[in-house]
């Protein structure tokens, strides 16, 4: 049994390439699922954004999205997942380039993303939030409020939904600050380097809970920002693997096992079951 590991950047690519070379040609010629069974694990792209995804000090990956994926892949005969940490903007290019087998990272479904990858049915749903100083001194309730304040800055993950929403609301590029991770965003708000930091509600709540800082507060939901759902994202051409994933996901939703995995993280199983990939991917 291979030891569970997290691989980042070039290391992940190098190991994956070596494993691919070591597989017999017959395995490489089979379906994607058969390849994953043969190598014994699936390579998943994640962020490090609790409660969607989290990486512990010992390298173990948890979070609602990887936990669902891990269970489904086990049911499909793939006993392990090997995760590599990626910025949201690099996830789809990495998937298309073959560096990942699937993205399980709170990558919300949007029509433009649905055109680039094939999504599973919904897994996790959430709304947007802002982390600000206590008392919300600038009175932010929306990204438009930030745009109207000519001195205001907002932090967001690079290539993520929050960055796009801020830009679409009219916040100038130089006032949308790309932040590498949640802890950095929180520290930047604490230090006054940005006026607000934007992430989904659950992620912001997790940050503020761990910070235990009475000088911070959460504005949620962000007015005018839609509620989003993610799904596992697969490379175009891997529809058969996506379909097999969906079959097991549907079984877990029906049995209640899906709820048992995601609801302790604060997500709603009912929300994920109330919509569909087809609806979420439809042009707006």
Structure explained in plain terms:
The strands form 5 sheets. The chain has a 5-stranded mixed sheet with strand order 10-9-11-8-12, with helices on both faces. It has a 3-stranded parallel sheet with strand order 4-1-5, with helices on both faces. The chain has a two-stranded antiparallel ribbon with strand order 2-3. The protein has 284 residues and is α/β, with parallel strands linked by helices. It is 42% helix and 17% strand. Helix 8 (161-168) links the parallel strand 9 (154-156) and strand 10. The termini are far apart. The chain is globular and about 55 Å long.
Secondary-structure blueprint:
Layout: H1 10-22, H2 25-29, H3 32-39, E1 41-46, E2 54-55, E3 61-62, H4 64-75, E4 80-85, H5 88-96, E5 102-103, H6 111-114, E6 117-119, E7 125-126, E8 128-133, H7 143-148, E9 154-156, H8 161-168, E10 176-178, H9 182-190, E11 196-200, H10 201-211, E12 216-219, E13 228-229, E14 233-235, H11 239-255, H12 257-262, H13 269-273, H14 277-281
Parallel strand pairs: 1-4, 1-5, 9-10, 9-11
Antiparallel strand pairs: 2-3, 6-14, 7-13, 8-11, 8-12
